[in-house]
Amino acid sequence: QLHLQESGPGLVKPSGTLSLTCSVPGGSITSSSYYWNWMRQPTGKGLEWIASIYYSGEKFFNPSLKSRVTISLDTSKGHFSLTMKSVTAADTAIYYCSRGRFLSYMDVWGKGTNVSVSS
Amino acid sequence: SYVLTQPPSVSVAPGQTAMITCGGDNIGIKNVHWYQQRPGQAPVVVVYDDRDRPSGIPERFSGSNSVNTATLTISGVEAGDEADYYCHVWDSSSDQVIFGGGTKLTVL
What we know:
heterodimer, A: mainly beta, seven-stranded mixed sheet, four-stranded antiparallel sheet, 11 strands, B: three-stranded antiparallel sheet, globular
């Protein structure tokens, strides 16, 4: 059973940059069958998709976040990453990474990591 | 951009059938996926491609999709089914992942 693991700082200062990594054990990160995703969920609210990346490097973004977000894939390290700049308190949320069947459902999710934006 | 509309809450007695809807413009031509999220946990897919179930998901969970509404049906609801449920599609016209706002299922 594949397990994804998010990692990164739990606290980021306002106007700073949030950086998260999702570790993908087992080598499937290079498979053409999957794409890799970041979502977030503020406390008590619904899921919000942030961005996705395919093994080829093709990227997709939520238009409302695109100007602040970078997503990348490091096949040598077996992980993919999210960077979000100019964060505010509104970016405080649980951040999830997931594996998706290409342009289809997300079959494996990480447990999520809490990120708080505060001075 | 494409919008998916779910009722905020659905309540059902144990043993009864719960139906959670997901409305969208011509959603019937898209593949709809459903996730269950229990409190404090990550989402888990319970139905994908409108009506298929991953291994390990009980047959009590089923899905349908037609015209402008997709539906997740949970038969013989149990206390353990109490959770938030989200629908999800890929919008090919804008190349975006779209989630519904979520429905909180309460088992009375």
